[in-house]
Specification:
heterodimer; A: 227 residues; mainly alpha; 82% helix; B: 187 residues; 9 helices; globular
Chain lengths: 227, 187
């Protein structure tokens, strides 16, 4: 048996004495080799150090003080939790740099979103106004009093184009009253199917231009989604 | 309230009180278990002050999370898990903050020649530091829990969230390294 093998067995064994008794070759080698014998003795001493460490439990000096410190810390945290108002919690959060940065980012995002929506809405209103003007001209040219079943469309026309003429409605008015305009335009969509069929039937009697106007108005109903 | 926890049933009753927010009941738990927590923390960190900090933090954590203790494992196993996690954090912070002095305190080690002498904390700390400082954290914790604290292999695997086989492997590697270090010191 070589010295390296012996040392390996000694280092890896759970119990040296047991290993020595179990392995006759090991025993023979240790008794004849001075170096390995010395190594074995030191290994036993090393295990004794570990055993001593195991039995000598670390001494906790003044355990009463430690207990009191722990309990006082908990008492303090309970009191603090009860007393801390919402503003203090928010303030504490704001002290964190990352939280502040996140808030600034969110704020900036909403500002950009607001201006983007405003710009988009204004663009839609301009387009709507153009459509209405165009449709109004067709309507005035082609319609008479002979379309009572389509009076709700006439109401829409009067409400939007008529009032606009009377009140000199600006783009700003359209923006402010866009909800009202939306309500009127959705009126058509809310009609019962037979009423819509009735309108479709009546449309056969209309001229090409009149039907175009109606399409314009109904298309506005689709365009409302852009608002 | 009786300040000594005499049985598992007794402990469960006290923990129920703690769950309801009874701080004096928690005081009893602290008195009964702070020695165990300190022993583990001290042996893992080889530093008395750090160990005391970990004990404090551990019990505050136990108070806050007592609702999540489901009784599936022993209370001591659950407590050891909390202590070990905090020791792990402490070692990580320490590694970042200070470059540790790896030289062995010769004076202390000479005093360890007399194995009959009862080690005081400082001596124990030096020895543990010497024998386990170069060990990877997992091996170090396995060695402390299994060989020094006397937990069973199964308990160690529960505390460290590793398999029983992994506990055995790590323990074997740790023992080998520690023996080598101690033999080197002796020769």
């Amino acid at each position: 048996m070589k010295c390296d093998e012996v040392k390996k067995i000694i280092l890896e064994s759970e119990n040296f004495e047991y290993a020595k008794l179990q392995n006759r070759e090991l025993l023979k080698h240790i008794s004849s080799c001075h170096e390995c014998s010395h190594f074995f003795v030191n290994a036993e001493k090393a295990d004794n150090v570990i055993s001593r460490l195991k039995t000598s439990t670390p001494i906790l000096e003044d355990p009463e003080t430690l207990t009191n410190e722990i309990l006082n810390n908990i008492r303090f945290s309970i009191v603090r939790k009860k007393q801390s108002p919402l503003t203090e919690i928010i303030f504490n959060w704001l002290l964190i740099k990352q939280v502040r940065f996140a808030l600034y980012s969110i704020l900036l995002f909403f500002i950009v979103l607001y201006f983007y929506e405003e710009a988009t809405a204004l663009k839609s209103v301009i387009k709507l106004e153009e459509n209405l003007n165009k449709a109004g001209k067709h309507y005035e040219a082609g319609f008479g009093d002979n379309l009572p079943n389509l009076s709700f469309i006439y109401d829409i026309y009067k409400m939007i184009v008529g009032e606009k003429k009377y009140m000199n409605i600006s783009k700003e008015w359209m923006v402010v009253n866009k909800k009202l305009i939306q309500q009127i335009l959705t009126k058509y969509n809310s009609l019962a199917l037979d009423r819509k069929n009735e309108i479709e039937h009546l449309r056969k009697n209309l001229s090409k231009e009149q039907n175009e106007f109606l399409d314009e108005i109904l298309n506005i109903g689709q365009k409302e989604k852009q608002f | 309230m009786n300040s000594i926890i005499s049985s598992e049933e007794n402990l469960i009753a006290i923990l129920k009180e703690v769950e309801l927010g009874n701080l004096s009941a928690f005081g009893v738990v602290v008195k009964n278990y702070q020695h165990y927590a300190f022993s583990v923390a001290f042996r893992c960190l080889s530093n008395e002050e750090d160990a005391k900090d970990v004990v404090q933090e551990s019990f505050i954590k136990i108070w806050k999370n007592i609702g999540s203790f489901n009784g599936k494992v022993k209370f001591t196993t659950w407590m050891h898990k909390i202590v070990i996690n905090l020791c792990y954090d402490k070692l990580r912070m320490r590694k970042r903050a200070v470059k540790r002095n790896e030289e062995l305190n010769e004076e202390i080690m000479e005093s360890c020649e007399n194995l009959e002498k009862l080690y005081v904390n400082k001596e124990q700390a030096e020895i543990i530091k010497y024998i386990s400082d170069r060990l990877p954290k997992k091996q170090r914790f396995v060695f402390v829990l299994r060989d020094l604290e006397g937990l069973t292999t199964e308990e160690v695997s529960q505390v460290l969230d590793i398999s029983i086989q992994s506990v055995k492997t790590n323990l074997s590697l740790a023992r080998k390294e520690i023996r080598t270090r101690l033999i080197k010191w002796r020769t």
